[in-house]
Amino acid sequence: MRVYKRDDKWAYDVHIDNKRKRKSGFKTKKEATAAARKLVNDHEQGLQLDHSRTFKEFFLEWVDIHKKPHIGQGSYQWYLNALNIFVEEFGEDKQLTSVSKNDYQRLLNKYGENRTQESTRKLNNFLKAAFNHAHDEGIIARNPTKGAVVKGKKPTASEESKYLSRTNFEKLKAYVKTRDDMSYLVIYILMITGARFSEVANMKYEDIRMDNKIHLPGTKTDTADRVVPASKKDIVFIKQRLDRHPIKISGTPFSISHTAAQKALRTAQKHIGIPEDKWITLHGLRHTFCSIMLDEGVMLSTMSKRLGHANVEITQKVYAHLLEERELEDDKKIVKYLEVN
Fold it and tell me: At the N or C end, where does the chain have fewer CB atoms within 10 A?
């Protein structure tokens, strides 16, 4: 709400439901302010607020209608993760209209205690989008996310912390093979393919092929759907693990959330003795796989196709620091050759 003077008269300028309301001709600033507040109050009193509707109910309906048809599985999972964080803090019965600014700020403050600012910003973006929609539709009178302060106290992870050493990667792979839970099988497939979590989560039984290849249903770009080679022993192992569990009618063996898989990964890293400050995420498995393959001499163009990137330039940008390290090693090889010959 803005109150200002215009041609020796006072005026107000307010936005209601994304519509601009202006009026001038008031003798004093007090009159203009009172008129603007009355306009806002009259509007809010006229809203048909549903005080029985929970935030969870509203959020799931909003996501399914306005987001899910237009985003990939990975992004959709992020929205669900944001909802889970909200529910963990306030419970499933928290009413949409009862979320105050203090409630919302406390949620961000608590979440940011052990998160980076980027992680806290993502949570705010996903929840804020839902509250913005509710406010625009007149479902809530006030938007609790407006003016929220987003801070994260954990420093952003360095590039080195996104990767495991080759030794720890092999230890982790050996450990997850001993576990029968499906979460660990998901981790195993991530480790041998370099796939995104959403791609493995969306796999069908037939995607584990008998010709020693794995089909990855891409979820991020049009070019991400791909088939990658695997070893015969890996295919046999995956098939044997799947046979231990009942076949699902849906045809999708992995009905596992990102949160559950990440929890299993943390447990596995703890078990094999990796310090907590060196733990990586599920996406870190993808980075580690690529790092090892580049170290093995696999061409960048080959890795780009396997990772499902739209082009080699993307792969080059994401793994620039690894390529720089490899370039230094190649320079040494060149100099050594020239010295001998």
Answer: C
